[in-house]
Design goal:
Length: 164
């Protein structure tokens, strides 16, 4: 996984190591557990995975590389990002209905930062774009997988709609 140019699929990893997907999944769970509390995390999203720096060591890596701290997000960006994270996949119209304001500029900014991406099209009239979070979102917030988002009252587990 260190030499992969991007996130690696579980199927692809199983093919490379010549092992059944189930065996690879078990090994990945063991690896993820072993890495917790260390400087590296196994990050997973939708069957894709990669090794990333743990958020608690990010300041040291940034200092070593001579990087400035990460960019702070505006309140509008955080609100929009939270809606996407908990309701993904979601359309722009659905986000705007929840926020009550136009979100095109915020969506463009979040896409430019690589925190969200287009994940498909809804089967609604006009086939609007669907937005979802990215691996960079997980890295930014120090999460291993989308399911690690803290639960919100009325929404249930991450990504699941609760009482509306």
């Amino acid at each position: 996984m260190f030499v992969a140019s991007g996130p690696l699929g579980v199927q692809e990893l199983a093919r490379v190591v010549e092992a059944p997907v189930g065996v690879v999944e078990e090994a990945l769970e063991a690896l993820a557990a072993d890495l917790r509390g260390r400087g590296i995390r196994l990050q997973r999203q939708g069957g894709r995975l990669r090794l990333v720096t743990a958020p608690e060591v990010a300041p040291y890596v940034e200092r070593y590389l001579g990087l400035k701290g990460r960019q702070r997000l505006s309140r509008a960006a955080l609100e929009t990002l939270a809606i996407i994270a908990y309701r993904q996949p979601i359309t722009r119209a659905q986000i705007e209905a929840m926020r009550g304001v136009d979100c095109q500029h915020v969506l463009s900014s979040l896409k430019a930062l690589g925190l969200i991406g287009e994940v498909g099209r809804a089967s609604l009239p006009g086939r609007p774009l669907l937005y979802g979070t990215t691996m960079k979102f997980l890295e930014y917030f120090g999460l291993e997988r989308p399911e690690d988002l803290p639960p919100l009252d009325g929404l249930g587990p991450a990504g699941q709609h609760g009482a509306e």
